[in-house]
Amino acid sequence: MIDNKQRFWNYYLSLEEDFIKISRYVDFDIKNSKTFSIEFARIIMTCCQEIDGLLKLICERLDPDKPRNNIANYFEILKVSLNELKDFEVDSIKYGLTSKPFIDLSSAEHKSPDWWLANNKIKHDRINNFEEANLTNAYNAISALYIIVLFYYKVYDENGQEIYLIKRDLIPESQLFIEQISGIGTFSE
């Protein structure tokens, strides 16, 4: 029987597998960063839906008295209680890409990340905004989900383990974000 904790990781791995399959048709190269497709739209929207649900749970745990209705509410709570999230960077050695999807937490205003805005544009007006369903936004959305899943486990871990210890216990491992190094190529610009 799978416990609820493992379900979030398994769901992430399922989306990661779908994302990696796309690389058979669109090379994950900076030159293709604006390539858009139905599959990228699906990845972006599915990741953002999962992120929304996990952020509600994280914020409820961190500050149960504050509203948790949208990403601006989440950012207010995260800026105070989980400030290291803004600096968290993931790298994909396999594809030479890096992402810092929550860098906008460091801004003074409550600016939503580009990948989140892309999700809303695709969701509400796909005909006029389909080009937002591109590799850049898909990579940043899957990166954000990966990070949020790790931070969910950190927030709910009763032993207060650090991310690297939590990551070690997640089986099977991510095939997209195997190691974390920086400075190769970026889609976070």
Search tags:
189 residues, two-stranded antiparallel ribbon, 3% strand, globular
SSE map:
Blueprint: H1 4-22, H2 38-62, H3 71-81, E1 90-92, E2 97-99, H4 114-124, H5 126-129, H6 135-156, H7 163-169
Helix pairs in contact: 1-2, 1-6, 2-3, 2-4, 2-6, 4-6
Written description of the protein model:
With 189 residues, the chain is mainly alpha-helical. It has 7 helices and 2 strands; from the N terminus they run H-H-H-E-E-H-H-H-H. A two-stranded antiparallel sheet has the order 1-2. Strand 1 and strand 2 (97-99) form a beta hairpin. Helix 2 packs across helix 3 (71-81), helix 2 (38-62) crosses helix 4 (114-124) and helix 2 runs parallel beside helix 6. The longest helix is centred in the first third of the chain and has 25 residues, at 38-62. Mean pLDDT is 87; it is low at 179-189.
- Class inferred from helices and paired strands: mainly alpha
Series of H and E elements: HHHEEHHHH
Biggest sheet: strand arrangement: 1-2
- The total beta strand count reads 2
Oligomer state of the chains in this structure: single chain
How would the global form be characterised? globular
Sum this structure up briefly.
The protein has 189 residues and is mainly alpha-helical.
